[in-house]
Structure to design on (110 residues):
């Protein structure tokens, strides 16, 4: 469950990052280009993802701890996106592979 929570937060942060006017993008996929052309719609999707992640975090950890943990998760994911995205280390294949490995460990080990 935490793996999915962190993936949802990462996707919301990436979507917010791609709606920025200050960042110059080199290689952006066509579907992301079309989605980010409508900034309001893309930001609404990001906010919905953040609300979903907030609900999941508060469900898993309780209201108080989940609320504060959500901010820690968002700060960590935004830092990762801002640090690693310009170097193109965050590709969808890497994110999917890491997600599947972490999901496997979460389900079968923990």
């Amino acid at each position: 469950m935490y793996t999915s929570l962190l993936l949802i937060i990462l996707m919301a942060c990436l979507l917010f990052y791609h709606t920025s006017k200050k960042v110059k993008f080199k290689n952006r996929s066509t579907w992301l280009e079309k989605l980010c052309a409508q900034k309001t719609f893309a930001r609404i999707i990001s906010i919905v993802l953040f609300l979903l992640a907030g609900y999941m975090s508060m469900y898993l950890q309780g209201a108080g701890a989940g609320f504060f943990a959500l901010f820690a998760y968002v700060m960590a994911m935004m830092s990762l996106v801002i640090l690693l995205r310009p170097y193109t280390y965050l590709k969808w294949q890497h994110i999917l592979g890491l997600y599947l490995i972490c999901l496997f460990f979460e389900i079968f080990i923990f």
